[in-house]
Amino acid sequence: MTQPNATMLKFGHPASVVADTALWSVQVRPQQPALGSLVLVCKEPATAFGQLTPAAFAGLQEVVARVESVLTRFTAYQKINYLMLMMVDPDVHFHVIPRYEGARDYLGVSFPDAGWPGPPALGQAVALDADMLAALTADLKALWVDVT
User: Fold this and answer.
1) Of these four, 25, 43, 123, 142, which has the most CB atoms within 10 Å of its CB?
2) Which residues form the HIT domain (predicted)?
3) Which of 1.10.10.60, 3.90.550.10, 3.40.50.300, 3.30.428.10 is the CATH number of 6-146?
4) Is 90 exposed, middle or buried (0-12, 13-18, 19+ CB in 10 A)?
């Protein structure tokens, strides 16, 4: 088992983990600019996209397909954004933001997509408390196991 890297830990590993593959960790983003926002973190010791091995690139395709299936079922998103910003967190990772017009409700909390139809409004995210993070992680994990 690979030790979690700094980026995985910053985004709440292991509590936020929806799924792990050999080379990628799928985690709930603690700040939700839209309901179901995730972080895909590469487990390889790479700080630039071009440093990834062919295996990591190949594994990314499977992870992305699964993420899209899960989020389609969970949020019925209209568009999806993959942001590779890497300005603060050094390890190769993507922020995955399912996009939709209006808001989605989850456990009595409204999750508006404040940036729709433009770029995601990352600064207007809903901050998850520990209970909400645990519930959202569990629900997405259950869908991950269920989708093919």
Assistant:
1) 25
2) 25-101
3) 3.30.428.10
4) middle
